[in-house]
Amino acid sequence: MNILVIKSSVFGDNGNSSSLVNTRLEQLKSQYPEATVVVRDLAAEPIPHLDSERVGAFFTAAEERSAGQQQIDDFSMALIDELKTADRIVLGLPMYNFGIPSQLKSWIDHVARAGITFRYTENGPEGLVEDKPVTVLAARGGLYAGTGNDTVTPYIRMFFAFIGITSLDFVYAEGLNMSEVKEKAMREAEALLRAS
Length: 196
What we know:
Layout: E1 2-7, H1 16-31, E2 36-41, H2 52-59, H3 67-85, E3 88-94, H4 102-111, E4 118-121, E5 124-127, E6 134-139, H5 152-163, E7 168-173, H6 179-195
Parallel strand pairs: 1-2, 1-3, 3-6, 6-7
Antiparallel strand pairs: 4-5
Helix pairs in contact: 1-6, 2-3
């Protein structure tokens, strides 16, 4: 069992989504004590945002790459290898200003690679990553699930489906900036995790 953990809170382990990730991870470790766990903390080890240099490296043929371009490609391929070899993924997903954290977008930009994690066919795009369970632990300051203001859930579903992963399970902790709601929301989210 290989478990890939992705934390995307700017607050690291102090973030609400990271707290839920840690709860889920402890569960999985007790279920699978021999599991190999890879933790990708995107705040502690930020992934560079895409720029012309990085995109240029991706689109340069391997035999024509400079040493610097090869290093960029190697980094991207290491992230893709973590994704492909994982049997399960646990994703901590805060909502910032109605979107995903920019550091998570950088991870997505490095793993969404044509011909590697997806390809275009006559019938449209086809994912090249084997389906696997993904637990998405979504923490939000307000109440957005099931409303038009939740841009995060459909985006994450669409991205993972695009590369071939459709087995997503969302657990929401909402209203976390509403003091009377926060403790109840975190308790309910943790109870859902324990029941799963």
